[in-house]
Amino acid sequence: MSTHSDSRTPQVSEIDVEDLAPDQAKHELARLAALIANANTAYHRDDSPVMSDAEFDALRARNAAIEARFPDLIRPDSPSAQIGAAPAEGFGKIRHARRMLSLSNAFDDDDVANFVTGIRRFLGLAPDAALAFTAEPKIDGLSLSLRYENGALVHAATRGDGETGEDVTANARTIVDIPEGLEGAPEILEVRGEVYMSHTDFAALNQRQAERGGKTFANPRNAAAGSLRQLDPTITAARPLRFFAYAWGETSAPLAATQTEAIARLEKLGFATNPRFRRCATLKEMLATYAEIEAQRAALGYDIDGVVYKLDDLALQQRLGLRSTTPRWAIAHKFPAERAWTMLQGIDIQVGRTGALSPVARLCPVTVGGVVVSNATLHNEDYIAGRDSRGAPIREGRDIRIGDWVEVYRAGDVIPKLRDVDLTRRLKGATPFQFPETCPECGSPAIREPGDSVRRCTGGLICPAQQIERLKHFVSRSAFDIEGLGAKQVEAFWRDGWVETPRDIFTLEARFGPGQPRKLKNREGWGEKSAQNLFAAIDEKRRIGLARFLFALGIRHVGETTAGMLAAHYGNWDALRRAMAEAQPGSEAEADLLAIDGVGPVLARALVTAFDAEASEIDALAEMLEIEPAEARASDSPVAGKTLVFTGTLERMTRAEAKARAEVLGAKVAGSVSAKTDLLIAGPGAGSKAKKAADLGVEVIDEEGWLRLIGEG
Which of 50, 268, 387, 529 has the greatest number of CB atoms lying within 10 Å of its CB? Predict the structure, then answer.
């Protein structure tokens, strides 16, 4: 070996992973990312490989080894997280003509019986009145909406947030079960269903991926989702995806009069529908179909996680209408949770955005339903102590102690929970768990208010845990949903002092963009392109709907449904903000707030307190944004924008149905009469509300007058 060879400084690419310094590792990861991306493009897009499989595998192996040694240096474009190439920019967005909804869940026969009873009550039907439902397997896949115009497929979109999805049209065209054209379809037809992958095809795909050094998938659903979201449709075309149609969105003409007939028509148009679809005339038949499908579950060849029931009569579906995110006329009956026993190693206390102290079980890892579980919720201190919120015993009064053997299950096959304790295996000397009375994050007193099952930190925004959790909530999917700024990125920015309040998010570019001494593009894990993309994504979300903005504020008791209800009532940000400032005890503004159907004293107090305590922060944030007014519905109806109150007994429809119909027509429904009430609809038995309306000069009509007013008399 020559002296020259011995003295040559080795290239970074030649240094063993164990000998790399952090700065060398960073440069090597960048080099490997570029090489692997180029190889992927050549292989997947251009069909012209630039290296052998062995060379490609060696690059990936070196990249993986460096990432394992330096996890803090993992790049956003890491080859370890990539499948194939990215020949195009990200997916475009498609706004659904009709919102894509989710389903509420039933976990046992009683839940299903209550679902049926609730529908009868809403519609005012007798217990023995005929009422048919459909039942079909709930496919565990990825929801997809297909829009056809004049028989031609014009676009396909994922569910997304229900309002806007990803444009995956080119990929959807490669799925064999999706027709390009339809004969005899309405002029406009949105067909909705589930993209899935069979067990056999999933196993074959994973084998091919492993042989190629590519990423293998954890389950068929992930494989289907990853395949449909490929930026290169030729990759999707090579993946064995299937599609079941089970619903529809916008249509220019009705498909049929019943769910059963509509599904049959979709099948006649050329769509694959599930062969285990059934029409059930009774609750007994619904539960029997569920049992039959559950027994066949393992032999179906694809994943399902329950059975979906839908009211068969489409006219009755229309009468029942929708909640904020789910229809009243459908429910998913989930299969029983799988269970397993393991040891409770510890109990951690996590502090949420509203200060709630939530106990989390730290478990010896155990597989439950094909998923490794190492943590589970313990709900609250009463649950740990073996009692409910009223002091009655649960689990026959057995408390939960560290070191116990506990039974774990996954509720709805999603959230791990503890079901029971095996006292015969309890360790000698095990002591009851003492729930903390001070916040583990900031040391502030943790108080449990009368009637509340949860203990809460009183530190407010001085508590670091509440700060970070509120920031995570602010950027969550149902709130601002800023692309590229998820919970992990927010936590990193908060930890380094870059973002402390939601307002700071919208000043990131001014503080860390071009021309500033400290730049986001120079931050670990960020580059010029990713920084530009984030700044653009933040700017895009400066315009937001009133309901989303209100939900994003993270006010206690204000979920998506409540936020939508408040937005609809007040209409715009200025009116809502003014009402919160004026809603002091005994004021007209407070009475107006409490008159909103569904708003009680607890919610009203939480709202006013939040706006009072954080007025400067909320107002400063609002100044940075364009908050869009609530979407006006049915503006041409005679009750649009009016405030209505229903009282007494209605005979042609139930009060619940009447309220839902009024909201669809753009009216605001209040629970009590006030000076702002425009109209009182009074049935037989109307009492104090009718008297108060007369005293205030509010117009009063009966049910027949109401039906004539809305054109249904």
Answer: 387
| Residue 187 and residue 76 share a domain | no
Tokens of 442: 């900031």
Final residue in a domain of this structure, among 314, 334, 354: 334
Secondary structure percentages of the chain, helix, strand, coil, to 5: 40, 20, 40
Comparing 68-72, 291-295, 403-407, 522-526, the range with the smallest average pLDDT is: 68-72
pLDDT range class, residue 632, cuts 50, 70, 90: low
Q: Which residue has the higher pLDDT, 50 or 522?
A: 522
Higher local confidence (pLDDT), 411 or 613: 613
Residues 570 and 499 in one domain: no
Share of the chain above pLDDT 70, in %: 91
The two tokens of residue 433 are: 């768990």
Phi, psi dihedrals of residue 310, rounded to the nearest 5°:
-135, 140
Closest CA to 456 of 507, 380, 515: 380
Q: Which residue type is seen at 574?
A: D
Instruction: Give yes or no for a contact between 165 and 157, defined as CB atoms under 8 angstroms apart.
Output: yes
Tokens of 647: 């009282």
For residue 553, how many other CB atoms are within 10 A of its CB?
21
**Structure confidence at residue 435 as a pLDDT band (50, 70, 90):** very high
The C-alpha atoms of residue 380 and residue 389 are separated, in whole angstroms, by 9
pLDDT tens digits for range 209-254: 888 877 788 788 888 888 898 888 888 888 899 999 999 999 999 9
Residue 603: burial class (beta carbons within 10 Å; 0-12, 13-18, 19+): buried
> How many C-alpha atoms does 211 have within 13 Å on its Cβ side?
6
In this structure, the answer to whether residues 385 and 501 fall within a common structural domain is no
User: Quick one: CA dihedral 36, 39, 41, 45, positive or negative?
Assistant: negative
- Which residue type sits at 92? G
Whether 91 maps to a domain, the answer reads: no
Kindly write down the DSSP assignment for every residue of 578-606, as one continuous string.
Answer: HHHHH--TT-HHHHHHHHBTT--HHHHHH
- Specify whether the CB–CB gap between 242 and 194 falls below 8 A: no
Residue 692 annotated as catalytic: no
Q: Do 70 and 25 form a contact (C-beta atoms < 8 A)?
A: yes
Which residue's entry shows tokens 């919970």? 487
Residue with tokens 């998913």: 332
Query: Considering the entire predicted model, what is its pTM?
Result: 0.57
- Nearest Cα neighbor of 614 from 553, 540, 562, 567 is 553
Using a 10 angstrom Cβ sphere, with 0-12 exposed, 13-18 middle and 19 or more buried, the burial of residue 211 is exposed
The residue that leads in pLDDT, 270 or 659, is 270
CATH number at residue 52: 1.10.287.610
Q: Is 516 helix (H, G, I), strand (E, B) or coil?
A: coil
**Which three-class secondary structure state does DSSP give residue 367?**
strand
Closest CA to 308 of 143, 194, 193, 137: 137
- Partnered with residue 167 across adjacent β-strands are 157
Please say whether the beta carbons of 558 and 608 come within 8 A. no
Q: Which of 26, 138, 668, 689 is catalytic?
A: 138
Which structural domain range is residue 590 located in?
A: 545-628
Query: pLDDT tens for residues 452-511?
Result: 889 999 887 789 999 999 999 999 888 999 988 988 899 999 999 999 999 999 999 999
Round to whole Å and give the CA distance between 98 and 567. 19
Average pLDDT over residues 583-602: 87
